Model the fold of this input.
Amino acid sequence: MRIVVAEDSVLFREGLTRLLSEAGHEIAAAVGDADALVDAVRRERPDLIVVDVRMPPQMTDDGARAARQLRAEHPALPILLLSQHVVRQHAVELVPTGAFGYLLKDRVLHVDDFLDAVRRVGAGGSALDPALVGALLRDDGLAALTAREREVLGLVAEGWSNAALAARLVVAERTVETHMRAIFQKLGLVDSDDTHRRVLAVLAYLTR
Amino acid sequence: MVGVTVRRWLAVAVLAYAAGVALQFAVSPPDAAARALVALSPTVLLGLLVGWRRPASPAGPALAGLGAAPALTWALEDWGASYATAHPLPGALLGAYLGGGGWVLNFAGFVALCLVFPTGPLPGRRWRAVPWAFLGAAALVIAVIGLEPLGYADRGGPLPGTAPLPLGIAAFRVLDVVAGLVLLAVLGAAVAALVTRYRGGDDLTRVQLRWLMLGAGSVPVLLAAGWVAEFAGAPIAVAYTGFVAAMVLLVPAAVAIAILRHDLLDVDRLLSGTVSWLVTSLVSAGVFALVVLGVAQVSARADDRVGITAAAFVTALALLPLHRRVHAAAGRLLDRERTVMVASIRRFVGAVRDGRAQPEEVEAALRAGLGDPALRVLLRLPGTGGYVDLAGAAVEVPLENLLPLAARDAEVGALVLGRSTARRRRQARELAVEARLPIEVSRLRIELRQALQDARTSRARLVEAVTEERQRLERDLHDGAQQRILAVGMRLRSVQRTLAPDGPVHAELDAAVGGLEATVAELRRIAHGMRPSRLDEGLAAAVGDLVRDSPVPVDVRVDDADVSEAAATTAYYVIAECLANALKHAGATRIGVTVRPVAAQLHVEVDDDGRGGAVAGFGLTALGDRVAALGGRIEIVSPAGAGTLVRAFVRAGV
Done:
């Protein structure tokens, strides 16, 4: 994939580009602030952007705002936000649109998981940090779910497919299917066999 | 123009006086002429002095006229008197006809003075009749006395022939009385002109008129008294000395005081003090004498020394209270305004001392006392250049009518008078001395208030600075340390990928990265302790985080509002502390958290159904300090066994 990396910390940016390059991706541009990011995307038309939430010029949520702007300009552009800590509001708008990831920066140390998330987002899927999912799951409407169903829901929200879920939970895929049906019924969602659409339905519910 | 007219009149009066004196030297015995010179010159000189110092005031010519009129009158009398002597002067017969009642012309200058003093124009149109009335009265008096039968040769008088009017003595006595009463009425009218001016005049005019009124009023009174004395058999000279003396001494003295010196001498107080000492001395002497006499009467054997000692003792006992009372009484009588003013201020000071009035009301008290609604009390605070008013607000200092108040060497403030005359300034200064206690207390209270306000603001600034500092530290941790550690971690991972997955170094690197990861988590936890980063999303989100892990149900109702970072953080810590207390100490089974913005405050309430009885321990005290630093406060309601309610009112200040 051709990737644009936007991260103001030079050390972290270099680590990130190296990681992604070694994984076989092409770094189209590596920039240090939100404005340069917007320019680079317009110029390079990358397959994915990896964006730090807090960046110059204002050092608040410039990265998140630039990401929302780019999503409006290029609706299909996959976006992976990186953040020091979870801020729900940065994700709420982008989560239900798909091709979106939101990870704490620590996750890059689990290189394989991180690269997997990059791949999922690049393919139009989701990759949400468990901490963000935790924040999203604090909805009172989830009271009807059992503990196991909540766990499954959280993992779905992180972006996993049923098969990957079954592997993580060490259960049969059919069991996961059963949980999913129950969850969809309780939350009043329309079920689908397509993993992407299924995840999006869950995320739309969680961020509404 | 006015000055020119005044000077012309002054010249006329002085010339008249000179002519009168010259005539006296020509027609009278030298000693009589010298007496006139001595008696009248001071008045005329005074008129000249006033005319020189106050060129615009008609008082100068009027004063000179006051001296000129008797000079001419006496010359006229002596001219007429020479008819009966061995060497009659030319035309002495006419002088003899006119001279009997000529004394009435003595009053010409006096009437003029009363009518024009102190500003010139008559007090009203009606008063124009007074000079004419005086001329009529004078003519009447001269005619009545000139026609009196006893003055003619057939009755033994100096005038030749018989009386021209066929009226008896009794009828002339009636005419005498009528003429006298008419004259008195005219003189009374002249004095009334002064009273009218006094009533309508401003402060300065009143001061100037007060003493002239006294002196001028005495003239007709003494004239009438002279008639009574004459009727009672006193010699004419004695009977008439009184009003002449009043006219040429009292009246000029009063005018001189009013015009020239009243500011300097401050006669009101001088007179009241003198009178009170005089009365006190007299009464003391009387008491002394009475006691001596009484002791002698009671015991014939007691010698004088016992009486004198007793008298001295009694007098000494009586002296001080007596003087105080007499002084007050004299003050009331002679300087009524001042006494009333001082008493009103003393009452106010007493009320302040008893707590019935606030010291800051001193301005109103001084305004009422001095009758000056525009008066202002300004205070000077140490270490500041300008003045403040009684509310502590800085004021522009007007340059006019400013009366500085000093205590010892330092200036404590100033009075600004709405109307300023020398007398008012003196009174204001005196009242300010009486009111120095409330003024000083007001000043101290303002200082205290400002110091307290300064302390509060600086405390709030400190809290805000601390909050900002925490925010900065949190960012530094996130943006600096954490990122660097992650970068190092990524390098290690990078290296790790080049190694064989089952080698010992591979596992070692895994452990190292694990350690870094734990460090980052720890840093995040520390940063969160400094300032919950969820506050970025608002107080509601942060509180939601806080209650999520609570083992008992928590009803949260947080109305998010636009509040300052410091207020949000403070509210957050109040809630966190109270939740911890409710869970740890109170054994609550239900907790409620409410946050709502009310006006410029954030009302934070945390209640539980625990065992209550909470006391303001260290945690709550520290919270209270924190809230108070932002200008808020904390209430704790915690009866034993009935739950705890903590209310915090935090200033929202954006």
Q: What stands out?
A: DSSP finds ten helices and six strands in chain A. Strands of chain A lie at 2-6, 26-31, 48-52, 79-83, 100-104, 126-128. Chain A touches chain B at residues 8-9, 11-12, 14-16, 18-19, 22, 54, 59, 84-85, 87-89, 105-106, 108-109, 111, 138 (CB under 8 Å).
